[in-house]
Design goal:
Elements (H helix, E strand, L loop, with lengths): L16 H13 L2 H11 L4 H9 L32 E9 L5 H13 L15 E4 L5 H4 L13 E11 L6 H14 L13 E8 L13 H14 L8 E4 L4 H20 L18 H7 L2 H19 L4 H11 L31 H8 L3 E3 L3 E4 L2 H7 L6 H6 L6 E5 L30 H17 L9 H7 L4 E4 L11 H10 L3 E6 L4 H5 L6 E5 L5 H8 L6 H14 L6 E7 L9 H11 L3 E6 L6 H5 L10 H17 L4 E7 L4 E6 H4 E2 L2 E2 L5 H10 L38 H5 L1 H4 L4
Parallel strand pairs: 1-2, 1-3, 3-4, 4-5, 8-9, 9-10, 10-11, 11-12, 12-13
Antiparallel strand pairs: 6-7, 7-8, 13-15, 14-15, 16-17
Helix pairs in contact: 2-3, 6-7, 10-12, 15-17, 21-23
The structure holds flavin mononucleotide and iron/sulfur cluster.
The site of iron/sulfur cluster (SF4) has 13 residues, from helix 13, strand 8 and helix 27.
Length: 747
């Protein structure tokens, strides 16, 4: 039956579906027998084929055939785009469109520039780019399916699209191009991601901020649209963030940064490194604020993911006496337990005996990595906070930008100790993090931690490059860490080599904000230089502190007071901060006087007051914490006013300096040091800090006071940087998630 045969008239001609129906009706009218006979006469050896044809089901419905269909979500095919660096090559294709000619010139220059790619270490480089004017090509050749990979059997070229586009708010060819992209995506006959065979794409838009100052007013709007359609058509292959340039402003610099980033990606692809993991949802068809939830709110992921894993952990983890004790503590009683009193050790453990704090096989490790932490070594962690992601997308930095000039996309949040000696009711991580009163684990060297956390941080930043809205220039800037928040989870001061770790950060001119829980006076006393030193002040009296922090140390109050005394001793060498986290029903009512007394004792440079964030974990619920314990911003400001008056009554020269209403946070500052004739100076001069440090001479907080606090951050002005875009989260309780990245007691 398989032998060569001639074509028979039984093969229906390729015509429209309507014709097909008519043919079938005609066939029915023929006698099956007659037809078979004819066929047998025509070609005997096709007997079986013919019979099959005749027996196939026939549509009896009269009238034209209706073709119906709908796209099935998530069914976009993913052609094999595996890249074998030993045989395959990357072929960049630059598409441009230009009316006035400026984009055309830039596209040609870029093609020249990319023509001389540097070879990678392995000696591979992308091919010389092809250049196409969108008006000169047939869209179907490039934007319905990618061109077939060219080259011989031995080498295959994989395409990478670069699109350089201006925007015109009038009807132009560009509008047709946009319609083409949208129609291709919405045509159910075509796979919704027909360009997923590309190795990647990136778009750069040219616009004029003089006429169209903001995104909302149309700055680069058409290029932005193209970027979104390409994300859908390629099935999340945005290889580098969408870039924009203002033709009457910073065009050169922006373009240069974008092309440098694109070149790097092309080199990576050519070397077979691929586009990296990417964040779930990056470049996804869901191009709306929902996407922020997909890509952005790690803190919420954390809160929701916590419950089951915490449960698993509790049921599984029976090897740790202190944890068992802590469970008893959190389950039944509020009484603090000092495990050191019965956990007898004849001698200090030798390194060989010491366990790993978070072994890779432990449920804690699984729970933390699931929540987005990168565990470094055996006791350190790094994670990018929601504000870092927000700043990358131009949606605002955390309050530390308003108060101290820290841009969140330049900030790394990490901890060298995932373990802590408290079980604070509002801590949204416990249930997963280990607890202990003494360091009894294997100690990782500071170099390992330093290199590991940087690597983990950069990897996470790189994962953001395909996320819609990420600004190219911020993405580039983020590839150099400038600040480090030693907080995240656990107690950083617990790590025995904390001073060495701090020195490593400073050597690379990374500033340090270290947060401790006022339970480790010896370590606090021995602490070396830090750009800003925080102590969490979660209550103003012993009883309240016991209830809220649920400390493991029996002598927690004495430790707390000793830490405050040490802080006072350090006030001339360190820029010190009290961190107050207000929990309604726990530590606000009637406590302003008590806090004022603590301020008088330690005389910190600043007092930061924040409303707690409710994270909805089982542990916080067990501690009796509900949404009702989250104060409204008005309640926070009322407390701040009360505390300010209490400080005044004591003759202490403090004043309310700044606020970040977005994160429910207010800053009280020492007037003598930070209020100058031209107003508040709460910002930090980071370069000056490093100069002081490197001089080897003693220095104090007065030596690196920065520029005046920006107008918009001052008390009464709200504190949101007007250059950033405020995002409205429709229908969601505004403060709950928005403050999470920075509300944590230790951030
Ligand atoms: C009629 C007209 C409409 C424009 N509309 C927009 C606009 O909506 N948004 C924008 O960002 N730029 C707009 N621009 C600025 C152009 O995008 C910008 O000048 C671009 O560089 C022109 O590129 P070309 O010379 O390659 O055509 C407009 C310019 C003109 C002349
Ligand atoms: S919330 Fe903390 S980690 Fe995040 S940007 Fe602000 S300071 Fe850095």
């Amino acid at each position: 039956l398989r032998k060569k045969r001639s074509k028979t008239s039984l093969t229906p001609p390729l015509r429209s579906p309507a014709h097909e129906v008519r043919d079938e009706k005609r066939l029915v009218l023929l006698s099956k027998q007659n037809f078979l006979e004819k066929a047998v006469i025509q070609e005997n050896n096709q007997f079986e084929d013919v019979q099959k044809t005749l027996n196939r089901p026939v549509h009896l419905k009269l009238g034209p055939k209706r073709v119906t269909g709908s796209r099935q979500a998530g069914k976009a095919s993913r052609p094999d785009t595996l890249f074998d660096a030993s045989t395959d090559q990357i072929q960049p294709v630059i598409f441009y469109w230009s009316l006035g000619g400026s984009t055309e010139k830039i596209a040609k220059d870029l093609a020249q520039e990319f023509g001389s790619f540097r070879a990678t270490k392995q000696g591979v480089r992308p091919l010389k780019p092809l250049l196409h004017d969108l008006t000169q090509i047939d869209y179907d050749d490039y934007f319905v399916t990618p061109p077939k990979p060219s080259g011989s059997a031995a080498t295959v070229s994989k395409y990478f699209y670069l699109l350089l586009l201006p925007t015109y708010n009038t009807d132009t060819e560009l509008s047709n191009f946009l319609s083409h992209l949208s129609e291709t995506h919405n045509d159910f006959r075509i796979d919704s991601a027909p360009l997923s065979g590309l190795s990647g794409y990136s778009v750069f838009g040219f616009g004029d901020r003089e006429g169209w100052p903001t995104e909302e007013e149309g700055f680069c709007s058409q290029a932005r649209e193209v970027d979104k359609w390409m994300a859908r058509l390629t099935g999340r292959k945005r290889a580098f963030p969408f870039g924009t340039g203002d033709v009457k402003g910073d065009l050169r610099r922006q373009l240069q940064e974008w092309s440098a980033g694109v070149e790097e990606v092309l080199q990576d692809l050519a070397a077979g490194k691929g586009l990296g993991e990417g964040v779930a949802g990056s470049g996804d068809a869901v191009e709306s604020d929902e996407e922020e939830d997909l890509a952005g709110d790690s803190d919420r992921e954390y809160a929701t993911a916590l419950t089951p894993s915490a449960k698993t952990m509790r049921s599984n983890r029976t090897d740790d006496v202190e944890d068992l004790g802590a469970q008893a503590l959190s389950n039944s009683s509020d009484d603090p337990i000092d495990f050191t009193t019965y956990k007898k050790r004849s001698s200090a453990p030798t390194p060989a005996e010491a366990k790993e704090m978070v072994p890779t096989t432990s449920p804690t490790y699984t729970a933390l990595t699931k929540q987005g932490y990168t565990i470094v070594g055996s006791h350190s962690g790094v994670k990018i906070c929601r504000w870092t992601k927000s700043a990358l997308r131009g949606r605002g930095s955390c309050y530390k930008f308003s108060f101290y000039g820290i841009a969140s996309h330049l900030c790394m949040e990490t901890t060298p100790s995932l373990s802590c000696s408290n079980k604070c009711v509002f801590c949204w991580r416990h249930g997963t993090n280990p607890v202990g009163t003494t360091w009894r684990w294997k100690i990782d060297p500071p170099e390992l931690i330093f290199n590991g956390v940087k690597e983990g941080h950069y990897k996470k930043i790189k994962m953001m490059r395909g996320v819609p809205g990420v600004r190219a220039e911020r993405f580039q800037e983020a590839m150099k860490i400038r600040h480090c928040a030693l907080s995240l989870v656990g107690e950083p001061i617990f790590y025995p080599h904390i001073n060495e770790l701090l020195a490593m950060l400073h050597r690379e001119h990374i500033s340090s904000f270290l947060v401790c829980n006022a339970q480790h006076p010896e370590q606090l006393a021995a602490l070396g230089p830090v750009t800003q030193l925080y102590v969490s002040i979660d209550a103003s009296n012993k009883e309240s502190l016991r209830k809220i922090d649920r400390p493991l140390h029996r002598d927690f109050w004495e430790r707390f007071i000793r830490c405050l005394n040490i802080l006072r001793e350090k006030r001339d060498t360190h820029r010190t901060v009290f961190r107050l986290t207000l929990v309604k029903g726990f530590n606000i009512d009637e406590e302003a006087e008590g806090y004022a007394e603590l301020v008088e004792r330690a005389l910190p440079s600043f007092v930061e007051i924040k409303g707690v964030t409710y994270c909805g974990t089982s542990t916080s619920s067990a501690a009796g914490l509900t949404m009702r314990n989250v104060p409204f911003y008005e309640e926070v400001t009322a407390f701040v006013a009360a505390l300010n008056s209490a400080l005044k009554r004591r003759g202490l020269e403090y004043g309310i300096a700044a606020e970040h209403a977005h994160s429910c946070c207010v800053l009280i500052a020492d007037k003598k040091r930070f209020l100058k004739t031209d107003g508040w100076h709460t910002l930090i001069d980071y370069e000056k800090f490093f100069e002081c440090l490197e001089s080897g001479n003693p220095f104090g907080p007065g030596d690196y006071v920065g520029a005046p606090t920006p107008e918009w951050a001052l008390w009464g002005r709200g504190g949101f940087d007007p250059r950033d875009e405020r995002v409205d989260r429709k229908g969601k309780k505004k403060e709950v998630y928005e403050v999470q990245g920075s509300t944590e007691k230790v951030a």
